[in-house]
Model the fold of this input.
Amino acid sequence: MALGKSHDMINMLLMPAALYFIPKEFYLPFTLGYLIGTFFLSPDLDLKHSKPSKRWGYLKVIWLPYQKKSKHRGLSHIPILGTLLRLFYLNLLAFILYFVVLGMLSQISLDKALFSFDFAGFWEKLASSPASFYFLLGLFVSEVFHVLLDVVFSLRRVL
Done:
């Protein structure tokens, strides 16, 4: 298994090669997705003491249920599916947090702007943006490089 430093370094070295295939106007969303995928939403979030887990600082506690339900190199290491699972998990947490805050604010009768926020409409608009596609592509490509590096290190150990 590759170490966290190896994943970070090799992903960063491979990023320019990936950018070669991206239209210039989408470099920024792709790069942001790629960097977030490499450093914060790595497949290694299924490990409690991994570098990506530690990078979340105090917020790493939000990943504890994910880590308890995931085994290392399980679903989290299947390209695209792993990223989709992590994104679904984060969206589920955001959804729950939104409604908890909404419920709390309804008790004290604050500003009605939060109540009129269209959660589903927000995600629909975001999903239809070409920049969102390239952001997701950056997440997926960083994950593919991560998994390929794991495979190479595993094969190297066997041979």
